[in-house]
RNA sequence: GCCGGCAUAGCUCAGCUGGUAGAGCAUCUGAUUUGUAAUCAGAGGGCCGGGGGUUCGAGUCCCUCUGCCGGCACCA
């Protein structure tokens, strides 16, 4: 032991400087040694790149970096300590509450508690106050590594059953780290700040309380989760709260109401009533997709929405998906006098694939027909659980931009390679520049031989690589019937949405007996590729609304132009302007109300109308219009024909533009 | 489905500890003919989400159903 005590470690700092200390020195000591101010500012450290407590002894030569408030890691530390400080505050206020886990999440943290009484908004104020008291105390944060039995006994003695479970779950060989924030104790991986006073007292806020299952399993008890946000300083917190307000303003449910796009009502939860403005967007989008798919070699079809259970039994949906299906039962034959009350059970289709196989199965298919790309704007219904519905984003009745590609195993790669650029181009046209690709590979429980999985996974991956090396693999996350690619796009405020998908299926063609005649004259099974780009029209329009905050690009805007009169003497001329716009295929409306032009401009601008053409006496005399574009200050007076041509040119859908 | 919250005029919301409803915007009517983000005046408008209960009396308290909101779970 004495050898060790005398031994020295060489510490290399980020600027390359080397310093020598006794073995077991700590980051705190080194920081204080470098300078008094650094010693004070130090929050934590990195030992050989790994974030660690300042109090952690350094036993070997190491790279050491001191983490201060400027460091990116500081935020995470602050949030993590907030979680502990909040848990301590809660237990000081209500000692009977049992603590569980409290990780850092985007912008803040949460902590799950087991408490009989629900937390109320009033409780939040009390908890925040208590947290500030704890911060003001500047209680030191200390840590020890305990052995498992001791930790378990400790938590049993303290009546913290969840902590006992957590300790038991820590894998052999991993340290069981106990932390104290002052007198209050928690099990934690760490690292933590040096003392509670390093958390800014004015830069955190408790946001909301929500239910959450213990360990995320719905069979377990529901706990109460308190979410909070924390930042380096008051200004950042304020900026974040402002950002949340801005995000709320682009909520598609709110904009949908304001712009009269759609509504949903109690008698049809999760089903959309599209209003004229919303339906205009929908149809414009559908027309666009129809052109894109036709150009990409897809044949559009249409299949029934109500189908006998027999088909669902054959496809496997009856067994695996029934609880998500709308089922109808009707009496047949009772009136005809035959067998009374024969029941026939149908289901509303939750997916289009079985129907598409039926179309494929009509007539004998040759290998020369493959790949066969069968597209449908398929109206589907799924009985989604009541708690999962959300505006247009998660509904029970929706229409997919669905297609199935029937092909040979050898064609999977080529079809994948065709699909990805099509998807990218469509996303770009919709205003989304970037997206992520995820490859999900074979799960434990699966159908199909290893050979075919090997082949399909390799085909998907190789096709992706032709486009980009920027993709992630999610092992074991594939469907039981085949591997898949998922595509996630990023919207204007940085949120990600999974829309596109490209999935191989080895099972359904088998179950529904799809086959083709191969070149050698034998019958073979095709592989089926399920694929969608938008996902569903409903959800995608929801995403579009939030992405542009209701200010649609001209080609998608439901009302492209409003002609607004300044004086009633201009009414007749305004009518002519309207006709000219409509003749050019533009969606235009006229506003001859007895209101000031200020009023009209304000109202139509608020409604996100892209172009307002104001006409007064001057315009009538000169045959001009005064054009005002949304988002721009001021206006331009120009001859009517010129204005119409300019607007019409801008309103051409992106796939039909000359400049491509 | 689970936990918590919410449901009042077309919209956004107020209505304290129970005493048969109120504002702004919108709508309608009238005046005003107006030059680029709100002209003025007046009027109409509500089974207070549905059902049940407590009470002399319920928008307000209790139970229940439905829907919505925030999460969680789900999303072969």
Distance from N terminus to C terminus (CA atoms, Å) equals: 76 Å
Task: Enumerate the strands of the largest sheet in spatial order, edge to edge or round the barrel.
Answer: 18-23-24-31-28-27-25-26
Mean pLDDT reading: 93
Beta-strand proportion: 25-35%
Give a count of the beta strands, DSSP E runs of length 2 or more: 36
Global morphology = globular
The proportion of residues forming helix, as a percent range, comes to 25-40%
Enumerate how many helices there are, as a single number.
21
Largest beta-sheet characterization: 8 strands, mixed
- Our Rg estimate from Cα atoms comes to 32 Å
Helix/strand structural class: alpha+beta
Give the low-confidence spans.
none
Question: Descriptors for this entry?
Answer:
660 residues; alpha+beta; eight-stranded mixed sheet; five-stranded mixed sheet; 21 helices; RNA-binding
Protein topology:
Elements: H1 2-6, E1 8-12, E2 18-22, E3 25-26, H2 27-34, H3 36-41, E4 44-47, E5 50-52, E6 57-58, E7 62-67, H4 72-93, E8 98-99, E9 104-105, E10 108-114, H5 121-137, E11 141-146, H6 148-157, H7 161-169, E12 176-181, E13 184-187, E14 204-213, E15 222-230, H8 234-249, H9 252-258, E16 262-263, E17 273-274, H10 276-295, E18 299-300, E19 306-308, H11 309-315, H12 317-320, E20 327-332, E21 342-348, H13 353-361, E22 365-366, E23 372-381, E24 397-407, H14 412-429, E25 435-440, H15 450-467, E26 472-474, E27 484-490, E28 496-505, H16 508-511, E29 516-517, E30 523-524, E31 527-536, H17 537-548, E32 561-565, H18 571-583, E33 588-591, H19 597-606, E34 611-615, H20 617-622, E35 624-629, E36 636-639, H21 640-650
Parallel strand pairs: 1-7, 18-23, 22-29, 25-26, 32-33, 32-34
Antiparallel strand pairs: 1-2, 3-6, 4-5, 4-7, 8-10, 9-10, 10-15, 11-12, 12-13, 14-15, 16-17, 19-21, 20-21, 23-24, 24-31, 25-27, 27-28, 28-31, 29-30, 34-35, 35-36
Helix pairs in contact: 4-5, 6-7, 9-17, 14-15
The protein binds one RNA strand of 76 nucleotides through strand 14, strand 15, helix 9, helix 12 and helix 19.
């Amino acid at each position: 032991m004495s050898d060790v005590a005398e031994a020295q470690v060489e510490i290399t700092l980020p600027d390359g400087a080397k310093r020598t200390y006794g073995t077991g020195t700590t980051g705190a000591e080194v920081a204080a040694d470098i300078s008094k101010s650094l010693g004070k500012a130090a929050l934590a450290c990195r030992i050989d790149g790994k974030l660690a407590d300042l109090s952690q002894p350094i036993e070997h030569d190491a790279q050491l970096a001191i983490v201060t408030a400027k460091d990116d890691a500081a935020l995470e530390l602050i949030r993590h300590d907030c979680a502990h400080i909040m848990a301590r505050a809660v237990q000081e206020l209500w000692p009977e509450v049992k603590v569980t886990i409290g990780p850092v999440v985007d912008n803040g943290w949460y902590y799950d508690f087991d408490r009989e009484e629900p937390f109320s908004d009033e409780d939040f104020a009390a908890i925040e106050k208590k947290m500030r008291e704890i911060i003001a105390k500047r209680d030191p944060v200390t840590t020890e590594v305990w052995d498992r039995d001791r930790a378990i006994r400790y938590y049993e003695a303290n009546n913290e059953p969840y902590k006992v479970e957590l300790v038991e779950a820590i894998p052999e060989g991993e340290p069981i780290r106990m932390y104290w924030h002052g007198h209050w104790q928690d099990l934690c991986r760490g690292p933590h700040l040096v003392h509670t006073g390093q958390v800014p007292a004015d830069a955190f806020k408790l946001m909301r309380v929500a239910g959450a299952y213990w360990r995320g399993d719905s069979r377990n008890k529901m706990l109460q989760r308190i979410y909070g946000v924390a930042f380096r300083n008051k200004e950042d917190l304020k900026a974040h709260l402002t950002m949340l307000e801005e995000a709320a303003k682009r909520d598609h449910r709110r904009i949908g109401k304001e712009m009269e796009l759609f509504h949903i009502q109690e008698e049809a939860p999760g089903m959309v009533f599209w209003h004229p403005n919303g339906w205009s967007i929908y149809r414009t989008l559908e027309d666009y997709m129809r052109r894109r798919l036709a150009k990409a070699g897809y044949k559009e079809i249409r299949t029934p929405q109500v189908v006998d259970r027999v088909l669902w039994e054959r496809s496997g949906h009856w067994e695996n998906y029934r609880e998500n299906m709308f089922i109808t039962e009707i009496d047949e034959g009772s009136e005809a006098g035959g067998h009374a009350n024969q029941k026939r059970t149908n289901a509303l289709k939750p997916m289009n694939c079985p129907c598409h196989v039926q179309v494929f199965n009509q007539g004998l298919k040759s290998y020369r027909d493959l790949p066969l790309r069968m597209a449908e704007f398929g109206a589907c219904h799924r009985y989604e659980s009541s708690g999962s519905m959300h505006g247009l984003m998660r509904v029970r009745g929706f229409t997919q931009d669905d297609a199935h590609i029937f092909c040979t195993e050898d064609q999977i790669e080529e079809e994948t390679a065709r699909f990805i650029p099509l998807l990218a181009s469509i996303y770009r046209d919709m205003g989304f520049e970037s997206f992520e690709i995820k490859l999900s590979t074979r799960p434990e429980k699966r159908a199909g031989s290893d050979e075919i999985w090997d082949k399909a996974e390799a085909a998907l991956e190789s096709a992706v690589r032709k486009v980009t090396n920027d993709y992630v693999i999610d092992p074991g996350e594939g469907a039981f019937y085949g591997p898949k690619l998922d595509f996630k796009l990023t919207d204007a405020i940085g949120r990600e949405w999974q829309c596109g998908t490209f999935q191989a299926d080895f099972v359904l063609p088998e179950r529904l007996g799809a086959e083709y005649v191969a070149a050698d004259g034998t019958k073979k099974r095709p592989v089926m590729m399920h694929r969608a780009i938008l996902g569903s029209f409903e959800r995608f329009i929801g995403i579009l609304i939030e992405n542009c905050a209701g200010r649609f690009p001209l080609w998608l805007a439901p009302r492209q132009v409003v002609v607004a009169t300044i004086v009633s003497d201009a009414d007749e001329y305004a009518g002519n302007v309207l006709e000219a716009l409509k003749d050019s295929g533009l969606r235009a409306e006229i506003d001859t109300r007895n209101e000031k032009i200020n009023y009209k401009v304000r109202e139509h601008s608020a409604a996100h109308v892209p172009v307002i053409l104001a006409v007064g006496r001057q315009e009538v005399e000169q045959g001009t219009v005064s054009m005002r574009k949304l988002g721009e200050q001021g206006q331009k007076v120009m001859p009517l024909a010129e204005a119409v041509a300019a607007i019409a040119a801008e309103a051409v859908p992106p796939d039909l533009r000359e400049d491509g």
